[in-house]
Amino acid sequence: MIKPLISLATVLALAAPLNAQDEPQEHPSPNQIVAEASSGDWMSIPAEDLLVMTLAPDAEGNERKVVIQLMPVPFSQGWVENIRTLARAKWYDDISVNRVQDNYVVQWGDPNYDNPEATGEAKPLPEGLRVMGEDEYTVGIEDVNAVISDGTKRAWGTSKVTMVDALEKTLNDPRASEEDKKIALMQLLTIFEFPDIEGRLEDEHIANISIESTKTSAAPQGWHERDSFAEWVEFWNGWPLANFEIAHWEHWEDEEGNVVVESQALADPMENSPYKVVDQSRFWPVHCYGMVGVGRNYSPDTGSGAELYAVIGHAPRHLDRNIALVGRVIEGMEHLSSLPRGKGDLGFYAADEVDKRAPILTVRVASDLPAGEQPRFEYLDTESETFARYADARANRRDPFFIVPAGGADICNIPVPVRRVAE
Known about the structure:
8-stranded antiparallel beta barrel; 4-stranded antiparallel β-sheet; 15 strands
């Protein structure tokens, strides 16, 4: 199996020069790019994938609602199913926020369950909850590619097909300059991960200079895939994902079964170059700010979904693949991040801080609410050209306040824009 296809956002961002003299004089900010996105750049979030959590009003009587978008197929679906079951059984009603650890997480659930400060009996769980194994923290490439293209969820690789078509048109366009063709060829070789061929292109270093300093052996494409916690990272259907793979290289053979030599590969790289075959590939969502995960006990416990937390600090990526991520907060994050910190172990509220626990009045699946009360949200399509520009702008700020483009961005520093749709 050949490695999944990288997104349009990646390729366009990699191709963008960092030298200011090569750029237009006016550079929109990331927020401007999002504000100017066309309606076709936005993808609707199904009401079935939204949770509406209502906290008790604050000290001034202001309403506090938090909206959570649940993870889509194929990720963490056992836990997501449990969360819907718990919400529909109204099990979450009248629980509370029991832990607020600075620069880490806010955690809510039954205050008498797995809480070092608890004194009462735990709330009984509803019947029918699934039990998941630790292998379900990640999914295989076959599961990702099995997601059918239906307008909201697309199989991996849609963007690369589009990009390859565009680059091949450049290579075959008699009006394209030799320099444009060399750059297009370099990008095609990058997309398909062909290894370096000595002397392949005399001027390749010129085309590659803008991303050369960001490339690593684990992320040969450059900054957008570079990561400290995984071989590479990418966006898929609006979510940040990481990947680990086991692969080997194979060579094309001629009609007599002989391996094609490099000089022949250079003559026709799309047909003859060595190619990468992925033997095993696993994907998982990553712990960025606002992501929601499932609290659990020591292994092999994987949690049911009764205990949930949201990240309120620097991305704790060391938790990736160790805990199930089930969604992200898309509205009302301020109602969680501003809660008073607990002084007990791990940020749990101590016995004399019971009054600091924020009561959770209700948690509902949005599709179960009356039609007039169902919130509607959209996310910026991560396969769109607008997202490609947005991602590049996040990595290379060129709007007036900034002096030096950073030349890179952590996956969690490119939050996927989400907006509420007017009623």
